[in-house]
Amino acid sequence: MEKEAPSLDLILKGLWKENPVFVQLLGMCPLLAVSNSVKNALSMGLATTFVLVFSAALVSLLKRLIPKEVRMGCYILIIASFVTIAEYVMQAISLEIHRSLGAFTSLIVVNCIILGQAESFSSKHKLLPSVAHALGRGAGFSLAILCMGIIREVVGKGSFFEIPLFGEQYQAWTLLILPSGGFFVLALLLMLYETFSKESG
Amino acid sequence: MNHKSLKMMGSLTLISTISAFLLQMVVLYTQPIIAKNQALYLKQAIYEILPNTASVQGYRLQEGRFIRSDLPNPSVFAALDAQKKTLAFLFQWQGQGYQELMKILVAYDPVSKKLQGIKVLESKETPGLGERILTDQAFLAQFQGLAMPFNQERQELRHPLQLALRGKPKQPGRIDGITGATISSKAVLRIVNQGARYYFPLLQKTGGGK
Amino acid sequence: MNTDSLGFIFLSSLLINNFVLSYFLGICPFLGVSGKLGRALKMGFAVTFVMLISSLSATLIHSLLVWLDALFLQLIAFILVIASVVQLVEMVIKKYSRALFESLGIFLPLITTNCAILGVALFQTAREYNLLQSLIFALGAGLGFTLALLIMAGLREQLGLAKVPNLIQGTALTLLVAGILSMSFMGFAGLGG
Q: For residues A109 and A112, what is the distance between their CA atoms, to the nearest angstrom?
């Protein structure tokens, strides 16, 4: 086995340098669909990170027991269980959040970031590094979806966390909250990321 | 059976057991909380439509009639005032809104054949535009006391709800939509009509739910 | 219960609430589609086919789980059964029709983890569609996906010839085009009542 990188490095890498969204273009579907308000974005980021970390931990603990032939099935089974758990916990905390995310909570199952984590990292590494790696990727995803949520809510609705920011006369740019706005804001963020990461080398 | 497939089945069983155990624990713990939250939310919605409500009685469909039922998740609610007089029956109906599913709670009095009000329980309409169907009081107030008779012979609503036409005298069943939220307003009317076609004849047959 | 008419459900999932452009399901193949129209068409039909299978299995699973009072297993059952059924169909096609396999089958394993497939199952359950409504919904969603894919592939062909600044090239450009497409699909809202 290769030499394990220190855990903090793994987290930071997932957050910026190897950000799953900006660099690898994974997890696009929830990123675009539920980033129309800061609250939704935050809930989605947290739920995804929860599933990512726990499924990574379990996969890495069970890696010796999972035969190669059925590994995909096993990963999906583990991930789907944690998604269901996340769904129930979310419903118990707040029905309103669960409603506003709708079917997209269940759709965390097919988020490629999670399956990718299980397949290419957790199945080959020990518990601690894979949890750290998963945490980093979860944070990276949350960062991206939060950026989207903040831009879309502040510009598109003139509020932050449902608190009005600009007063009555602000003419909200509603387009950004509509589906097409998701595409535009993501395109903008990708361009910004490109520019910044080029400058920093 | 060879060694390999045994191992495969063994590990699949193990993983399923672990998942089942975790799931079971979480579900057992959270389900009562979720059920309580849901019941509370529905009750609040009922009080919001009919502020005079003192208590709520659940009803369930049996052989084409509604009978009283204290089981969880009844199909229809009756809102009773302090003198135990039935104010209205309430049912939920859902359909396609502008973008996503929309769920509406409808209050109907089968004796006077009048709507008593509606409340949108779930929707994902566009914030700032379609979302106004949740908050626009002028729009929602039109449903209070709106006559909505059901023609038993033809099995159809006598005046299905429709958006009012601008500049024309108001006819029965016409509702003024919200500017900038026409499609969401239309969706509300469509869903209320669909629910009415199903529930009104049943409620009228139950005749005030005695 | 849901009494939306079949025509309305079909129109709505095909155009008004296009899976790709308004629910963002199946974005990966959409963004990754090459400028080849033929390939996009085949891919679209494969997705439609799998969606129909998924919709049918989801209806059965849902009624079974309601009967067993075990709805918390729904998500797990959906994803596992859909994945297995698709694999089974792939094997059957491979065995009986080489030609069909070559044009359709190669896409099947890719499609299984596509979120649009699970999306069909989840949406039809949340909306309480019956079997027929579900199948029409899946058909509309699949054809809507095909339509979006075809438009994108056609645009890609043209974009290859256009001169654009370096910064926008690649995914950002595709996203901008998708945003404009999504805007134009908003015009369908209100069709069919």
A: 8
Distances in whole angstroms, Cα of residue B64 to Cα of each of B61, B196, B205: 6, 15, 8
Q: What is the DSSP string of C80-121?
A: HHHHHHHHHHHHHHHHH-HHHHHHTGGGHHHHHT-HHHHHHH
The C-alpha atoms of residue B134 and residue A23 are separated, in whole angstroms, by 40
What are the tens digits of pLDDT across the range A88-112? 999 999 998 998 888 899 999 988 8
Provide the β-strand partners of residue B114: B109, B147
pLDDT in tens, C5-21: 899 999 999 998 899 99
**Run means of pLDDT, 10 residues per run, chain B, 210 residues:** 81 90 93 92 92 89 81 85 90 87 92 91 81 89 90 84 79 85 90 92 68
Query: How many angstroms separate the CA of residue C122 from the nearest CA in chain B?
Result: 12
**Helix C74-96 and helix C37-68: axis angle, to 10°?**
130
Q: Break chain A into its structural domains and give their ranges.
A: 7-193
Structurally, chain B folds into a number of domains equal to 1
Q: Which of A5-14, A40-49, C50-59 has the lowest mean pLDDT?
A: A5-14
CA distance B26 to B30: 6
Cβ atoms < 10 Å from Cβ of B105: 21
> What is the domain partition of chain C in residue ranges?
6-184
Name the 3-class secondary structure at A21.
Answer: coil
Identify the closest residue of chain A to B37 by CA–CA distance: A95
Q: DSSP H helical segments within B50-157, as ranges?
A: 132-135, 137-141
Q: Which residue segment(s) compose the domain that B136 sits in?
A: 50-206
Alpha carbon distance C63, C22 (integer Å): 28
Q: Best of C76, C80, C166 to disrupt the A interface by mutation (most A CBs within 10 Å)?
A: C76
Residues 6 or more apart from A12 whose CB is under 8 A from it? A136
Euclidean distance between CA atoms C144 and C113, whole angstroms:
19
The answer to whether residues B116 and B88 touch, using CB atoms and an 8 Å cutoff, is: yes
Instruction: State the Cα–Cα distance between residues A68 and B16, nearest whole angstrom.
Output: 17
Asked if C118 reaches chain A (Cβ–Cβ under 8 Å), the answer is yes
Size of interface A-B (CB pairs under 8 A): 78
> Is C190 in contact with B182 (Cβ distance < 8 A)?
yes
